[in-house]
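Structure (tokenized):
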């Protein structure tokens, strides 16, 4: 029989369970609650417009009664009831939210100052915790993303920053996901948008890249000349072994010149005359 392994609850779930226990309202609280119920019954059906609340499919409502959370789970989506003058609620958006990280001046590991900006995608996983634990979840996540960007990129060199953006994004996501889990927030994705280098460094890198390309072009040209000289040497050896091959090459050259220079008149010499000069030499 397979053993059942229970998953460990996250920090946000622990905080939510610990703080959502039912707490007594006290004598004054019950008196105010009864007064609110009586007022609602006396003003029917007008009080229904004040009691009925609607939240969208992508929202959840966290209800407070006298400043305390009423239910262990948020309300929604759809219709729920809130007593007038007693209950208040906060709507939490469960959709994925994105925000831009402003450009940050960062000193890399090899002492180069660069300007880096990015974008963060996150969503609320526990509405009660996001309302109860942190005052402004989005603002806190933005500030944490800025400091995390500085801390992570400060340990990277310029070459790593330009070539390993995926690894940097994963490191930032892991660094953000830990603290935000206690706020009921899940960081889904972090991306580096742009890396701006100083103008002097850009010119130096461009000159270095141009010099590298020129050196590579010279090496390729030298290799081509070497291969061509080897091919010519092999061709000369083959032509030297066969006199008829030299005659055919001579006729082919004349055909090529006649095709390119139509206004030129060519008087071909017998190849035998040229061979006499070659033998004398």
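Design, position by position:
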């Amino acid at each position: 029989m397979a053993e059942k392994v229970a998953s460990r609850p996250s920090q946000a779930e622990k905080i939510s369970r610990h703080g959502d226990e039912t707490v007594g309202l006290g004598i004054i609280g019950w008196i105010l609650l009864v007064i609110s119920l009586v007022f609602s019954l006396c003003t029917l059906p007008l009080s229904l417009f004040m009691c009925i609340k609607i939240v969208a499919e992508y929202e959840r409502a966290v209800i407070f009664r006298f400043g305390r959370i009423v239910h262990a789970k948020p309300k929604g989506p759809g219709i729920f009831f809130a007593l007038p003058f007693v209950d208040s609620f906060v709507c939490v958006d469960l959709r994925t939210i994105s925000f831009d990280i402003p450009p940050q001046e960062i000193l890399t590991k090899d002492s180069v100052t660069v300007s880096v900006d990015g974008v963060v995608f996150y969503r609320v996983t526990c509405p009660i915790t996001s309302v109860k634990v942190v005052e402004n979840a989005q603002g806190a996540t933005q500030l944490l993303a800025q400091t995390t960007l500085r801390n992570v990129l400060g340990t990277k060199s310029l070459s790593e920053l330009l070539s390993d953006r995926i690894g940097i994004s994963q490191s930032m996501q892991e660094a953000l996901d830990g603290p935000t889990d206690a706020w009921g927030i899940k960081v889904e994705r972090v991306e580096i948008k742009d890396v701006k280098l100083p103008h002097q460094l850009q010119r130096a890198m461009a000159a270095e890249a141009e010099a590298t390309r020129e050196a590579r072009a010279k090496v390729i040209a030298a290799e081509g000349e070497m291969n061509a000289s080897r091919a010519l040497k092999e061709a000369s050896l083959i032509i030297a072994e066969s006199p008829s091959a030299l005659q055919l090459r001579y006729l082919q050259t004349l055909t090529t010149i006649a095709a390119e220079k139509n206004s030129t008149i060519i008087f071909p010499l017998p190849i035998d005359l040229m061979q006499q000069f070659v033998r004398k030499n």
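Reviewer-requested clarification: DSSP finds ten helices and eight strands in the chain. The first strand starts at residue 52 and ends at 55.
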